Amino acid sequence: MIENTGILLSIIMAIPMLGVMFASLAKDGLGQTTKGRNVLSVGIFTILSNLIVLWITARKINVNGTNLQLVEKFKWLETPNIELVFGIDFFSLLLIAAIHFAVLLGMIGVRNNPYRQKTLIISSLLFLSMITGYLLAADIFSFYIFFEATLLPLFMLVGIFGDIRKQDILYRFFLYNLLGAMLLFTALCILFDTENVSISEISRVSLNRHIEIFVWGAIFVAFLSRIPIWPFHYWISSVNVNISNPLVFIIANIMPLTGVYGLIRFFPLTAPDILDPYLLALKIISITTMVVISLIGFSNRDIQYKLFSYMTVYYILYLLGALLPTDALLGNIGFSLFAYLIVISAIEIMISHLEKEKQCTKVGDCGILCNIKRSSFVLSFFILAAVGLPLSSLFLNNMLIFAGLLSYNIKMAAFILVAIILSSISLLHHLFYLKYPQDDTIESKDICVSDISMPVFCVFILFMLILIASFINPLWFME
Amino acid sequence: MPHYLIILLFVGIGSVFIPKNRMVYWWTSVTFFALIYSALSLMGYFGSSALTFDWQAIPNIPIAISFVPEYFGCCACLGVLILSFFAVYYNIIVKKEERPNTINGLVLLNCVFVISALLSPNYIQLLAAVGMSDVIVFSSINQLDAKKQYIYGNFFADFILLNTFALIFVQSDSIVISSFGNASKQWGHRDFIAIMLLLSIFIKSGLVMFHTAYQKMSSLNYNRLNFILYLTTPLMGAVVFENIKDIFVISDYSYPLLKIFSVLTVLSAFIGTLCVDNIKRKAVYLSMMFWGLIFMGYAWQISTFSPKFYILLLSAFLFNNSLMLIYKSASDEVLISRMGGFLQSLKFTFFINVISVILYVVTWWIYAQKSIPYAMVGLFVISITSAHVFSEVYLSQSKADEWVLARLKNPLFLLWLPIVFIFSVVLYIKSNDWQYIYGFAVFWMLLFIFHPLRKLSVLYQYDSLQKLDKVTWIYNFFILAPLRFFGRVLRLIVDFVFIERTLIASIKNAIRFAIFIFRKLHGNNIWGHLIFVLLGVVIVAIAYYKGVMQ
């Protein structure tokens, strides 16, 4: 690790916590004239401030550096000797920035939310702080603490903003995550007990054969419990399908990223040989999940499930790309994930807007976009970007990820491609369903729903420009 | 980018985003200026039109973007600019579009991407240009079914293209197209690569089995339809083929596949043109026949992507536009079965139609004359179809509405001017070959007058035949329906039966059972006390064993 004293990383983690503090002091509540705008402004301002700090950080780090940079260390305990270490590389930076953009979009999506706005914004900022800490953690303790801490705000959000079946969902949420938490805790305790090392050095810890299998198996299951891989996909799909609040949906969908990121950090190129059969099993299960979920998404009429299916397929694609025996693709995965998180957040915001309009005006959602040109344009753009047309960094970076997978195993890659095609066509199909009334008895002029406002449209245009910039030059913000 | 492409790009974007489509004539003038300026730049009047720069689109691959037109590249770009000029011209003259500025802008943007594809030295530039062109065409189509089928097909084609290039990249470790050459013979999965690339090209160019999206476009305005058929995705298919044609030698399947598909395309388009009633659908089939003929040339390795190709492309475009003259003259009547006997009233339109056929045939001959059988096939299908269509319109017994008959009039001169102008230019260039042109004109007139296929007009009555769309049915029945069925079954089995009813239910029951046991143990009874005492003894025993015995 490159030693570098500084406080930038601490600031990045602290700003959302400061936001939480200010938001909790803001005078906002049901029935008040501010309608939750004060607390929303605090949330947006916090994220924008952190994005500026991230931009400053980006300019200070070496894009091509493979090690963690701007490392900050804090002594926590003397006995046992525990030191909290934070560091950043370009991959983490891209993910943190993408998550900030996604939550920012989510906040714009809930600007008119009448129900417990303060709780919503505070929990979101708390989540942002926790996940930022997770992506910056370089030692196993802070990594574990932040890994688990990300669950707390989400649990609260699902509990408060979930739909009718939220008790069932919380039950599954708790069950699956408890399993993951216990296993990871045990595995990390064994590792710490053997040798106190940083995350990047875990693979060199020598353990006896049975313990090694248990430790790595536990780490596997712990991270997989966050990724929608069979049978863990069920709790995530349940959360997705039963959440109508766009910000909560976006946060719930950032959660699998923690699993993918964990596996990327824990399974470097020098993963122990003993893992080979398990990695093969993981790949087979992953690809089967991709195909099954994409098929279910293809046949399902619910757009939330289609979106979930699309996200699952892409998260697993990134996971498989990261597990390839090369480090060269990490940058591509980062750039692709950057665009991907923005794209799915924007699609979710638009879908939630249409869902609300549908309920207000009592019309079906078939053809709902035909008279609202701004919404139609925005949704079309983001769906076309999502399916991989050259509108964002997804296009070329995915090509290299595919190249890696094709070179590794062409048959395996063929199944992945089928899953991607199916999930993308599902999204396209729904776009057409929303754009054009299929019932001849309904005239397009009969569908009177409100379009997104001009300021919101401008925000979307800004995000479109960010995506296009990421296609033209993914390092546009460094120039 | 070369300055002319930047001008085209900005004028295109400006035209698309003008609020409420204001200042149509002013913007059209700017559009024409941009096209003329670009053409003159390419011809060297305004300094160098070449540019090369590094594109940092992917962190680990340096991409050299290049716009260096050699002689053939320059001719090709000029061809595309001239065609775009005519597309904008017809768009303004016909006045059928609600938002003409938007269409003009899309024509310019498409022009930029076609030129980028034509001049691309690497497949990243090619892929990006092809993908962007798809977005432009997607925005140009304003009919649901056509839009749907177009984007499904082309998304699939782009995806195949992207992944096949990814497969090529991992084997060649280069993105430069010219580096393929002999190295491609060492690649693995050669048949797969060749077949996938061809499949993608077939979808893009709308060859048989992949033509339904273009068929569905027949409800678009005529000028918009012609722009899409000749200047956008089908042309991109041919450009992609031309750019990467060296790859196809790696597989023994490439050329047989090309031969089969191109011949079937020409055959199917030939039959389609003769059988369908709607003049716009005939126009779509005629364009399909054109692309089929072009791919036949590739399949037998006869023709090349020379400047002659662009003259032919322009003639085919103008020939299709000459059908629009009939449609315009007949008060927008699209059904051939409701025409007939128009010669009396539309002599001049007929004359223009004949000129357009001759122009098409002459340019075809110039293009294909290297192989007489190939040239004759084209000559045969073009002559038969055009003579049949014009005989139906001008000579057969009139079945038109009285209202249509009463309003028959020759179209505005601005509509036929480009045909006459290009015809004059071509005849001037080929002034030594008058005897062949006379010969063909006589042959065509005989076909026109005797109308040997007149019996086929009976097919216009069969509604089922006119609406026949077996390809969509095949896709729906053999691909989509089974996928949906599997999806539903999997959902039921995986999510509902296995996880919800088995896994979650078992854990729920197990937890419920554990709670029941603990409740019982905590109850005020002797068994509870006994079990807790025993548990304590076991723990003490284990601790003793671990601590003392070991």
Structural features, described:
The complex is a heterodimer of chains A (479) and B (550). Chain A is mainly alpha-helical. Chain A is 68% helix and 3% strand. Chain A has helices spanning 8-25, 37-60, 90-109, 117-136, 140-149, 151-161, 166-194, 209-224, 233-241, 246-266, 276-299, 303-322, 330-361, 373-386, 394-408, 410-435, 454-472, and strands at residues 69-77, 82-88. A two-stranded antiparallel sheet of chain A has the order 1-2. In chain A, a hairpin with a 4-residue loop joins strand 1 and strand 2. The model of chain A has no long low-confidence stretch (mean pLDDT 83). Chain B has 550 residues and is mainly α. Chain B has a domain at 485-549. Chain B is 72% helix and 3% strand. Chain B has helices at residues 3-17, 24-42, 71-94, 100-118, 123-140, 144-172, 190-205, 212-216, 222-231, 233-244, 254-275, 279-299, 307-329, 347-368, 372-394, 402-406, 413-429, 434-450, 463-466, 470-522, 526-549; strands at 51-58, 61-67. A two-stranded antiparallel ribbon of chain B has the order 1-2. Chain B is elongated. The model of chain B has no long low-confidence stretch (mean pLDDT 86). Chains A and B meet through helix 7, helix 11, helix 13, helix 15 and helix 16 of A and strand 1, helix 5, helix 6 and helix 20 of B.
